[in-house]
Amino acid sequence: MTITKQNTYLTLTGLMLLLIGGFIAANPTAYLLQFSSELNLPVSFFSELRAFGTGLLGIGLMATVSLFIPKLRLIALAASTIVFGSYFLGRAVSLLVDGMPNQGIIIAAGIELVFTIIGLYLLNKGVKSWN
Fold first, then answer.
1. Alpha-carbon distance 35 to 42, whole Å?
2. Residue 14 to residue 10: CA distance in whole angstroms
3. To bridge 18 with a disulfide, which of 41, 55, 60, 128 should be the other Cys (CB 3.0-4.6 Å)?
4. From first to last of its 131 residues, what are the pLDDT tens digits of the chain?
């Protein structure tokens, strides 16, 4: 496997999504406790959160596997970019609608924006060179 910008991006985003998605899917309570000390939520909420975490885990797995299966790279690059872009957009809307979140969320939004910009750049470059 040659080290390229696309492979570096897919490695970083794949690992990040695997870790975050795996953590949320495996232990949604611990994930939620970083935001609030009171968890008086119905069981269905935890099911939804595990499903969400498993979705992130799946995209992370695809990004990681694409490092070894070149035909998956473009779709994995697009999927990772869409995930990070969607998260950033959602956080930006929440900032406008709900107000200022804690510092951890602001840092996450910054990381998501950086991964989105890099992903869009690589997609633009990659679509031209991979076709």
1. 17
2. 5
3. 60
4. 667 899 999 999 999 999 999 999 999 989 888 887 777 888 898 899 999 999 999 999 999 999 999 999 999 999 999 999 999 999 999 999 999 999 989 999 999 999 999 999 999 987 666 54
SS3 108: helix
pTM for the whole thing?
0.89
- Give CA–CA dist 92/86, Å, rounded: 10
Phi, psi of 41, deg, nearest 5: -120, 150
Print the domain residue range for 76.
Answer: 5-130
50 with 25: CB under 8 angstroms? yes
Please list the alpha-helical segments (H only) found in 5-71: 5-26, 28-33, 43-65
List of residues 6+ apart from 85 with CB closer than 8 A: 112, 116, 119, 120
Residues in the chain: 131
99 — phi, psi (to 5°)?
Answer: 105, -175
Residue 17: closest CA among 86, 85, 63, 68: 63
